[in-house]
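From the methods appendix. Each design record in this collection lists the tokenized structure first, followed by the designed amino acid sequence. Records were kept in a plain field format so they could be parsed without special tools. The example shown here is representative of the layout used throughout.

RECORD:
FOLD TOKENS (331 positions):
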């Protein structure tokens, strides 16, 4: 049984106790029946090769009364503060002893939460195509998990919870997360003459893989879509500043890539506020090559980005996250 394995893990058992102290869940949590679930999964862009396994695991979950109660508690926690910034669901990593069902459990939480997030999108007047492309990022992350481990699952369920909590939207090439200015970025924005400061709303930009080139035209289109989208659907929030925290803003990339490359032209949009002091080489290796644990000496050199990331590491260098901002384009 799923909960037996979870209760044997000290950290997860504490998380379970916290959920249980909240009382009975107020949100209903049901799963599509096995005949309907394949269409739901495909609508979320889950890769075809995992459909049969996920339908079988869904039936196993539905037959486990305790696990379904846990599912309802998790859905309740996810949808309780729908749309509020910073209150999305943050589940722990389940132990390996929880098996395939434990590995895929977050998928079923998001499936059961679909009616709630879709209702929220309708209330905000968000178009069906934007809703569909946003929520389909779940399937992309299943593909990311498969690329690394060969199985369905989610590496970062907390990230997908932003999509299913009304905090993040896919608008063209880029994703835009409703967020708040950090301390250092807020200070830089204030010093630049904007009437904003630490804690005020902003848009955090995210760059996904499996979405084609990060071309300037694609970014321009996304920014124009975002300007109109948030003005229409979140008119009470002053979302004038775009921020980004990413290894793609590491200034060292300019030593390895041409000035007219997509990544450098993306960098040039930002005012860099600060760089992180602790290197994290696993992030660019995971993003570019699909597995953060690949040995540096074996990293391929098939294109300019692969050569930049791998050659820099082989020369003894490290990669760092950069933090930057720019003013959103006006209409």
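DESIGN:
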């Amino acid at each position: 049984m799923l909960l037996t394995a979870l209760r044997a893990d000290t950290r997860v058992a504490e998380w379970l106790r916290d959920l249980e102290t909240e009382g009975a869940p107020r949100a209903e949590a049901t799963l599509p029946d096995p005949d309907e679930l394949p269409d739901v999964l495909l609508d979320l862009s889950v890769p075809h090769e995992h459909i049969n396994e996920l339908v079988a695991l869904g039936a196993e979950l539905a037959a486990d009364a305790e696990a379904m109660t846990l599912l309802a508690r998790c859905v309740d926690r996810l949808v309780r503060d729908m749309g509020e910034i910073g209150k999305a669901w943050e589940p722990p990593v389940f132990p390996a002893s929880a098996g395939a069902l434990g590995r895929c459990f977050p998928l079923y939480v998001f499936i059961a939460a679909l009616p709630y997030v879709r209702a929220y999108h309708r209330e905000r007047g968000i178009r069906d195509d934007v809703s569909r492309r946003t929520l389909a990022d779940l399937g992309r992350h299943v593909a990311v998990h498969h690329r690394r481990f060969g199985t369905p699952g989610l590496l970062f369920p907390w990230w997908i919870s932003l999509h299913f909590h009304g905090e993040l939207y896919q608008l063209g090439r880029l994703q835009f997360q409703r967020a708040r200015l950090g301390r250092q970025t807020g200070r830089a924005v204030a010093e630049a003459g904007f009437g904003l400061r630490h804690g005020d709303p902003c848009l955090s930009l995210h760059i996904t893989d499996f979405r084609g080139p990060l071309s300037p035209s694609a970014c321009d289109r996304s920014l124009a879509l975002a300007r109109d989208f948030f003005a229409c659907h979140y008119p009470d929030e002053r979302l004038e500043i775009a921020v980004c925290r990413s290894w793609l803003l590491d200034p060292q990339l300019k030593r390895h890539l041409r000035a007219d490359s997509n990544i450098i032209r993306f960098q040039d949009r930002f005012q860099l506020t600060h760089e992180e002091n602790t290197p994290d080489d696993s992030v660019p290796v995971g993003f570019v090559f699909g597995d953060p644990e690949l040995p540096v000496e074996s990293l391929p050199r098939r294109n300019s980005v692969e050569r930049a990331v791998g050659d820099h590491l082989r020369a003894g260098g490290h990669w760092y996250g950069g933090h930057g901002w720019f003013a959103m384009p006006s209409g």
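APPENDIX NOTE: The CA atoms of residues 72 and 130 lie 27 Å apart.
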